[in-house]
Specification:
Layout: E1 2-6, H1 10-22, E2 26-30, H2 33-42, E3 47-51, E4 53-54, E5 58-59, H3 60-69, E6 76-80, H4 85-93, E7 98-101, H5 106-121, E8 128-131, E9 134-137, E10 142-145, E11 148-150, H6 154-165, H7 173-179, H8 191-204, E12 212-215, E13 219-222
Parallel strand pairs: 1-2, 1-3, 3-6, 6-7
Antiparallel strand pairs: 4-5, 8-9, 9-10, 10-11, 12-13
Helix pairs in contact: 2-3, 6-8
Length: 227
């Protein structure tokens, strides 16, 4: 699983990260609500672990409500020292999928995460993506626009897949660096510009309507709709 942990207590966070990594999972960690929202909204995770009490008096439930309002449907396990029944009900009503009170046994945390992941995987995942007449088959890894086959290098395919999954949304340089190149810093190179230019040639060249657009001072957007 790819897990997002939003937890400000360093000792608890290290305990969870170490245990999940030893179990073979990948973990991204945010120690505050702002970074947690950004990661949850800009990357794909199998499950999110959300602490309730975060810095600056931020309640994790408010973050969950924000994510659900933004259309993020990733399963969320709430961690909290608040164990009253009313608090657990409040957590589930805010959009959480499970609620685990502190202190907890790591084995139980892992079992609950596995259960949430299984629940999600029981729903069939899309095997293709479409934006206008641009079609991507995720199983065969073939891309076509209209009747034309489009040959892409692996990184170009990954970049286009990310853009198609966020069709109609502005995708920033930071989002591409973190999710396509998997850097958590900007290497300050023109690698994105080069790949965007090549991708634009592949999918828009010789077509009347461009799909890949530059949003000035913001990033890029893949859309079949006119501005």
């Amino acid at each position: 699983m790819k897990v997002l942990l939003v937890e400000d207590n360093e000792r608890v966070a290290m305990f969870i990260v170490k245990g999940l990594q030893e179990a073979g999972h990948t973990v991204d960690h945010a120690d505050n609500g702002r970074d947690g929202i950004f990661l949850a909204a800009s990357s794909a995770f199998d499950v999110i672990i959300m602490d309730r009490m975060l810095p600056d008096n931020v309640d994790g439930l408010a973050i969950i409500e924000t994510l659900r309002s933004a259309g993020v449907r990733t399963p969320i396990l709430i961690l909290s020292a608040l164990s009253d029944v009313d608090e657990r009900i409040k957590g589930l009503q805010s959009g959480g999928d499970d609620y685990l009170t502190k202190p907890f046994a790591f084995g139980e945390l892992l079992a609950r995460l596995d259960a949430l992941a299984r629940r999600t995987q029981s729903n069939p995942k899309a095997t293709s993506l479409d934006v206008g007449d641009l079609h991507m088959d995720l199983l065969s890894r073939k891309v076509t626009r209209g009747q034309r086959n489009i040959l892409l290098q692996p990184r170009e395919f990954k970049l286009l897949e990310y853009l198609m999954r966020h069709a109609g949304q502005v995708v920033t340089r930071t989002m591409m660096i973190e999710n396509v190149w998997e850097y958590h810093f900007d290497p300050q190179t023109n690698v994105i510009d080069v790949h965007i230019s090549k991708l634009r040639q592949r999918i828009d060249s010789d077509f009347e309507r461009p799909l890949l657009r530059t949003v000035r001072n913001a990033g890029y957007m893949l859309t079949a709709h006119d501005e």
